[in-house]
Amino acid sequence: MLELRDIASVLSGVSVREVKDGSARFMRLSDLSDLRAGRHPVLAAGDVPAVARALTIEEGDLIVGARGSATDVCLATGAVIGAFVSLDLYLVRPDRAKVSPQYLAAFLELPATQAVFAGGKQGSALARLPKDALEKTPVPVPPMQSQLLIAGLALSFEEERKLLQRLSDLKSFFGRETVARAIRAAEAQPAHRSSE
To answer: Residue 57, class by beta-carbon neighbours within 10 Å (0-12 exposed, 13-18 middle, 19+ buried)?
Structure first.
């Protein structure tokens, strides 16, 4: 096993100073939640940060939540490419010669890894995962072919979860619509009086 810092760069987010016509886009913790839910985030606009650690999100990067009860992990998508991450997030840039970004995302989302993150969080109100704790996370690094197979397996289960959620949402919608139609049909029928 290697520590995360041996196979990826871990960068802290930057402070966001929102400016209406700013040339930089910023991803916040709430945007991470939107991405995980399959929604397109509305990123904040602001001035380009003047700190050396401020790198924009690239394809294959992972965005990791620094705060909250769960440690959300998301593989960067087109919606956030080119944006900076805010202080409540970490930018994890895998060394692709050592680790597949998809494999690393799957590993970081495992319940056992999430338990390690939970144990390393500090604070009580809105617990924060220190950067050092994230960097020291032990990561098994099998051969690349195995990583790609595991990443594909994780992706197939994620796609299945999304399909089942969509099916559940549709079933719920059609159930409510069927009940609504039954009520409208019942209202349209003439009222029956019971004879006494």
So the answer is: buried
Q: How confident is the model at residue 196 (pLDDT cuts 50, 70, 90)?
A: low
- Which element (helix H / strand E) includes 38? none
Residue 122 DSSP class:
B
For residues 4 and 134, is the Cβ–Cβ distance under 8 A? Answer: yes
Q: Which pTM does this prediction carry?
A: 0.80
Q: Whole domain around residue 14: which residue ranges?
A: 2-141
Is the pLDDT score of 88 beyond 80? yes
- Crossing angle of helices 101-109 and 144-188, in 10° steps, is 60
The tally of domains found in the chain comes to 2
**Do 78 and 31 have their domain in common?**
yes
Whether 23 maps to a domain, the answer reads yes
The DSSP symbol for 124 reads S
Between the CA of residue 33 and those of 18, 61, 149, what are the distances in Å? Answer: 20, 16, 27
For residue 28, is pLDDT > 70? yes
The Cα–Cα gap between 138 and 21 comes to 42
Helix or strand holding residue 172 (H, E) = helix 144-188
Q: What residue type is assigned to position 156 of the chain?
A: S
